[in-house]
Amino acid sequence: MQFISPISNFYSMFRFVSVVLMISSALFASVKTKIIQSSHKNLVIHVVTNPVTTADLYPSTLLIGLPSLKLPKTQIRYYRKSPNPFPGFNKQNQTDFEWYNLQILQNLPSAVLEIDPKTKDGSFYEIVEIHIQFGPYEYPLRRPTSTEITLSANRILNWQTAKNWLRPEKRSAKKIQSFPPGKWISFELLEDGMKMIMQETLANIIPSISSHDPRAYMLFMSSELGRSRSQSVNLPIADNLVEVSIDIEGESDGSFDIEDRIIFYGRGPSGYELKISDVNWNQNLYFTTNTCWLFLPDDNSIRGKRVKMLPVPEFTSLTLDYGLSFYHAEIDLVNPEGSGLQWVGNSIPASGSQIITAITPNPKSGVDANITIQFMGNSSSETSSANHRMELRHNSSGGIQVGNTLTWTGTGLRNISGTIPGSELNSGNNAFYIQNISDDGNSAPYFDFFDIQYGRLLDDVEAFEFFAPAVGQEVRFTFSEPISSTTRVWDITNPQKASLANVSNLVNLEVILPTDTLARFAVFNINSLTNVENLEYQPNTVMDDLRNQITIAQYIIVGPKSFQTAVHPLLNLRNPSRYANLENIYQEYSAGNRDPMAVRSFLQWTQENWQEPKPICVLLLGDSGYDYRNITGESSIIVPTIQVQAYRSFATDDRFATIYGNIPEIALGRYPARNLDEVEDFVDKIIALESGPEFGPWRQKV
């Protein structure tokens, strides 16, 4: 599908339209705002309303510059009460005014003030007088930059005073990452787990491997270690790459020999996340592999980060023969709304059923299993909603019921949560029967996900992970039988800094559990690890083409590398300007993962680190859509947008520019080109428009 969005073709393209709007506003405006007094202590504003349509009686919003991130004292006075010419269109709010969107905007504290001229009794006030009393300013006075003037002078109502309240410019020099000369190798991971890279695999793409000391090898992932980035605002710019601890067998002699291998804990794009004492599944909705980087420095004196031994307690106060393990089932197949981020699996019709197979090796009989299954309501009729009634049973359609019968109406998300005794679980496959027992023939809810937490007895039959069921104690975990001499246990509570745990007598794992979080461990046999085969040597890798502090550009085009040559004439028309291809943005701001939020991190970087004049306009050049992972096989995404999943989903590009709050920091728009021909046509039209503007007689009739 072609992504429909307002087309923004850079700043000067708006100048003519802006002039027309300003002239027409002056001639025909029914709501006028006038500053009566403006100083560093007080601001008095008149909002004068002469309603012609109902639009003139909507609340007025004023963007006000402030001396600090503290809302000022505000008083409202009303004059000239008149009958509302639009009966029934009365004031709804209880308050006289409302402040919102308090944030830093182009280094200036600011907020939006909303004023409603209407009353609840069918009248309105022709004049609303606003008195604002400001607090003190805490920073040294400085002159605004050209970028701040361009982007704020016509937005901030009291700019002439507020420009004296600009905060020191943000700079994040500490986020400049520099790397010594060396070789970069990238590879992709699909899921969490212990991995290895064999010497032979690496030697196949780096024939000179013998010249590199393995003690210098480094492994990097994104700051999110493969997961998608938060969309919260006012966040510091994350490091592009973070080094992950690894273990290299045989590195002590300074040579990476045929029998040597790199062992590490890898992360896929989706998986379980540990947040203090909560363990939750993180489903990545944007990309399907995690890009990792192996770096071989040319300087053999450098030393990479290595796995260290975990401290052993002097004594233990608790003995356990099990840990908590998890299993998650989720297959995204359908986006019911054709928009947003809500993906689900198959629908289950009335009187129908579906079987979910959960794998639970070696369950402990004395520990209950906690189970959650989620559905999304759906009706097979396009004209009416449906009543749903769902059950979940274990092992057979007449087996033990998990939780209560779930009943609801409509399309909302609902879940069944319940427990079953650990003794009821099979060691291996468990069939859970989802049954739609609704008597409404239109009922066809979607299966969303299934999750089970259970106690698992410790062994080394296969690789697995477990969480400690206790915190803040010295614990002895005992294996059911002596483990193999080639079995290892790593503490992966912090996946970036894994530690090797000691198993005494091949039976007892004795550890000091942290007090502030659950501990997480990985059990594996070094001879049964999965070898990473998809290594790719990346010569001439550059990590600072866009992530630097020397670039000067007021205009940016963000698009795929394939469009870059076609827009050179437009870049030449806009000077200084820069084409930022998505491949470089991903590589320098999300470690190569196709995370849409890398675009926002890049734009934030330009505002905090590029030289003046900084970017004021951004053009997103390419179509977009909602199918980031190409689940349908028909994704139209060339340049991603941000899909917001709320009560009703919607797409927005503004989120790329809302860096420190809800108000966009810079001007941003999109031309939804689907191919190179459309890009070339677009550029030709812009060049023609500006080279010989012929607007026609309509220009005289505005």
TrEMBL record:
<dbReference type="InterPro" id="IPR029031">
    <property type="entry name" value="Gingipain_N_sf"/>
</dbReference>
<dbReference type="InterPro" id="IPR001769">
    <property type="entry name" value="Gingipain"/>
</dbReference>
<dbReference type="Pfam" id="PF01364">
    <property type="entry name" value="Peptidase_C25"/>
</dbReference>
<dbReference type="InterPro" id="IPR029030">
    <property type="entry name" value="Caspase-like_dom_sf"/>
</dbReference>
<protein>
    <recommendedName>
        <fullName>Gingipain domain-containing protein</fullName>
    </recommendedName>
</protein>
<keyword id="KW-0732">Signal</keyword>
<feature type="domain" description="Gingipain">
    <location>
        <begin position="555"/>
        <end position="702"/>
    </location>
</feature>
<dbReference type="GO" id="GO:0006508">
    <property type="term" value="P:proteolysis"/>
</dbReference>
<dbReference type="GO" id="GO:0008234">
    <property type="term" value="F:cysteine-type peptidase activity"/>
</dbReference>
